[in-house]
Amino acid sequence: MSLTSEEIASQPACWREAAALAAESVLALPYAGERVVALGCGTSWFVAQAYAARRAELHWALGVTDAYTPTELPIERPIDRTIVITRSGTTTEAIHAIERMQAEATFTTVITAVPDSPAAQLAGHLITLEFADERSVVQTRFATSALALLRTHLGEDLEPAIADAERAVTMPLPHDPASFDHFVFLGAGWSVGLANEAALKLRESAQAHTESYPAMEYRHGPISVAGPSSLVWILGSPDASVADDVAATGATVRVGELDPMAELVLIHRTAVALAEARGLDPDHPRHLTRSVVLQEEGTP
Question: Is residue 36 included in any domain, yes or no?
Answer without folding.
Answer: yes
